[in-house]
Amino acid sequence: MSPITTSVDDGGAVVVSTRETAVKTKNLRRRPGRPWWWLNDRFSANGCRSKGPVEIVSLPEAMDGLVAYYRSVAGEHTDWDEYAPP
After folding, report:
1. Mind listing the pLDDT tens digit for each residue in 11-65?
2. Which terminus of the chain, N or C, has less C-beta within 10 A?
3. Candidates 2.170.16.10, 3.30.470.20, 2.30.110.10, 2.60.120.10; correct CATH number of 2-83?
């Protein structure tokens, strides 16, 4: 299991942001729905285990979702152009 931090979108879906090259992304592409360990907002051991259907959205299609994710966990970015990938 990979530890993750999450947010919930307006439709109630759990949202995770991770790199395309991360092992957890490769594992999910190979076996969608594998278990995850959700960390709490303090990154401590308290959390919960979960599994279910997965949709992987890659850049550039994922950018609007990444902005919404960032805002939900960290608020406004000081420079959105800097946040966006090249």
Report:
1. 888 888 888 898 888 888 888 877 777 766 666 666 777 778 888 889 899 888 8
2. C
3. 2.30.110.10
